[in-house]
């Protein structure tokens, strides 16, 4: 066992917890947690020890897709509840998409009122290290974005041929997921693009003084891309500024929902494929905010928006891209199962989870190829 692997395994055992346990509670959703653990481990007691023992399987698993839950919604702030996404989506995947396979690394241990360590003073960090690790001088981070980046960076150093499938949580989590991925791919000499499905651009520089949040994460990963045009966005429709502003200011490429609906997915995808070929892109990372889908299909989310994509359009776009370019990293964000803002019962959290699971299953299948 290499020293590098042993250090990573120790870090995972400290900074993560069993799948579904990322939200610290006494009673809330305990039945759902127990159901997930029964499916994963065949029992509901002694889960910590079983999960710890399972970590050694990461070295031998045939799956290239490795699942990581980040139960944090502190970077959202409009309508909370996406912290339950990792637990609920895992259960839905097992129940409705049993063919979807991945090695489950577990959940980041989330202190729910923290976002990133850079926002904390030394006293707070020390107190949180005591709470998480029983050590006020621990070497490990305490905030979900910081922990996620640290764990993912070491993951890619140990397993360059595997990829993380992140489950959120609010979309701020995609910042550390994509940052670690992009830095690793750059070291491997791979040219990559991020395919971003969302109702919103997420291209603010900051929101209410916070620079790393659900509305700004894209802005801060552009520097790690080979070109800003390698951030390609689908489904945009809720924006205070026109498409020309975002493309002209940041150099990204956008395909708004109305364009896809008016032109058809084939025409839009043909344009994107031509761009990717011309730019010599090798691999893709897909970040999927569930609100890219029309609120008819995705109401259980913090910011549902009408006039969006339907699930088949999203799958058609992904299928066409995956036919030519390998998807080697991905995430599913902003599913808030206890939240359903639909009117007159037109949609439900079950619908949101069902559609999110379908898309997640497709992404996992592609990552395992």
TrEMBL record:
InterPro entries: Ureohydrolase (IPR006035), Ureohydrolase_dom_sf (IPR023696). Coiled coil: none annotated. Keywords: Hydrolase, Metal-binding. Pfam families: Arginase (PF00491). SUPFAM superfamilies: Arginase/deacetylase. The keyword Hydrolase applies. The keyword Hydrolase applies. PANTHER family: ARGINASE/AGMATINASE (PTHR11358), GUANIDINO ACID HYDROLASE, MITOCHONDRIAL (PTHR11358:SF26). Belongs to the arginase family. This is Arginase family protein. It comes from Pseudoalteromonas qingdaonensis. The lineage of its organism: Bacteria, Pseudomonadati, Pseudomonadota, Gammaproteobacteria, Alteromonadales.
């Amino acid at each position: 066992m290499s020293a590098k692997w042993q250090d990573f395994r120790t870090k995972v055992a400290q900074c993560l917890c069993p799948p579904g346990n990322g939200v610290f509670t006494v009673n809330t959703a305990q039945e759902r947690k127990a159901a997930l653990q029964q499916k994963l481990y065949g029992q509901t007691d002694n889960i910590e020890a079983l999960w710890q023992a399972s970590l050694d399987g990461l070295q031998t698993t045939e799956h290239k897709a490795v699942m990581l839950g980040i139960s944090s919604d502190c970077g959202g702030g409009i309508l909370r509840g996406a912290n339950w996404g990792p637990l609920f989506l895992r259960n839905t995947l097992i129940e409705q998409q049993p063919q979807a396979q991945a090695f489950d690394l577990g959940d980041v241990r989330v202190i729910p009122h923290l976002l990133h360590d850079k926002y904390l003073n030394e006293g707070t960090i020390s107190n949180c290290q005591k709470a998480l690790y029983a050590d006020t001088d621990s070497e490990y981070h305490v905030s979900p974005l910081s922990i996620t980046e640290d764990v993912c960076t070491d993951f890619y150093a140990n397993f360059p041929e595997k990829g993380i499938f992140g489950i959120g949580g609010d979309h701020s989590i995609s910042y550390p997921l994509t940052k670690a991925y992009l830095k690793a791919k750059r070291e491997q000499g791979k040219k990559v693009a991020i395919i971003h499905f969302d109702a919103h651009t997420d291209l603010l520089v900051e929101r209410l003084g916070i620079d790393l949040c659900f509305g700004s994460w894209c802005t801060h990963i552009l520097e790690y891309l080979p070109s800003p045009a390698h951030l390609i966005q689908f489904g945009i429709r809720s924006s205070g500024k026109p498409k020309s502003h975002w493309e002209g200011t940041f150099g990204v490429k956008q395909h708004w929902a109305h364009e896809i609906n008016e032109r058809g997915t084939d025409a839009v995808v043909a344009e994107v494929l031509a761009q990717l070929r011309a730019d010599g892109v090798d691999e893709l990372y897909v970040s999927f905010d569930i609100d890219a889908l029309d609120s008819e299909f995705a109401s259980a989310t913090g910011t549902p928006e009408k006039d969006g994509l339907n699930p088949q359009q999203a799958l058609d776009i992904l299928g066409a891209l995956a036919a030519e370019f390998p998807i080697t990293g991905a995430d599913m964000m902003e599913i808030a199962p206890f939240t359903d803002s639909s009117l007159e019962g037109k949609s439900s959290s079950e619908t949101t989870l069902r559609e999110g699971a379908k898309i997640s299953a497709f992404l996992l299948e592609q990552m395992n190829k």
